[in-house]
Write a structure and sequence with these properties.
Blueprint: H1 3-6, E1 11-15, H2 18-34, H3 40-44, E2 51-53, E3 56-58, H4 62-76, H5 79-82, H6 94-102, H7 124-134, E4 140-144, H8 145-150, H9 152-162, H10 192-201
Parallel strand pairs: 1-4
Antiparallel strand pairs: 2-3
Helix pairs in contact: 4-10
Length: 202
């Protein structure tokens, strides 16, 4: 953007509790798979093989997909170091380095794509650190998804005000659940063991 416009740019970051976000992504991939619309890139984000038995294919369960993703994280992203210390913005600590190695769209020092791990989509601290390193913090509005859905009118007014706009005559209402277009069954729970494994990543 032209330098004269840089200070006028506004960003709205709506972050969702990361385990719920990951479960939602799994359901999206599962729904597309059942409809025959899933591409190889999406399936690769499960980090588990799609099994074939007697000519029929089967996606891994969510618990299996979590186990595979965490296993990939441990090998490719150095989980033990990444969780040894809390993330401190600007510190260049292990979590930031792990995010650099495993976040979708990143490249290594040679320009080659890194080993994408879907759990990194829920690693919000390094993402926000990158954004605020380039733009003033007052240009970034960070909101929690669950509270935004629960208090829609208040949050939408806050967003509109932050963007320097005015509310229209009628504000749209966001759905509390976004499963209307979901094809097939929806996974809504996971084992305590798998939840603990994801929490260890974050």
């Amino acid at each position: 953007a032209p330098p004269s416009l840089v200070t006028k740019i506004r960003f709205v970051a709506i972050i969702r509790e990361p385990i719920s976000r990951d479960l939602s992504e799994y359901n999206m991939i599962q729904g597309r798979y059942l409809k025959g619309e899933t591409d190889e890139e999406s399936l690769a984000r499960l980090h588990c093989p799609v099994t074939t038995t007697n000519g029929s294919t089967k996606l891994p369960t969510y618990n299996e997909a979590v186990e595979c993703a965490v296993g990939h994280w441990r090998v490719a992203c150095d989980l033990s170091n990444a969780t040894a210390t809390a993330f401190v913005p600007g510190s260049g600590d292990a979590l930031t380095e792990a995010y650099s190695r495993c976040a979708f769209g990143n490249t290594d020092e040679k320009g080659a794509p890194v080993a994408d791990n879907r759990l990194m989509a829920g690693a919000y601290a390094p993402q926000l650190e990158r954004l605020t390193a380039q733009f003033d913090r007052k240009q970034v509005l960070v909101l929690q998804f669950g509270r935004m859905v629960a208090y829609q009118d208040e949050y939408l007014r806050h967003i509109v005000s932050f963007l320097g706009l005015s509310m229209g005559a009628e504000a749209a209402t966001l759905p509390v659940e976004n499963s209307a277009g979901q094809y097939g069954s929806v996974t809504t729970s996971m084992s305590c063991e798998m939840r603990g494994q994801i929490q260890a990543v974050y």
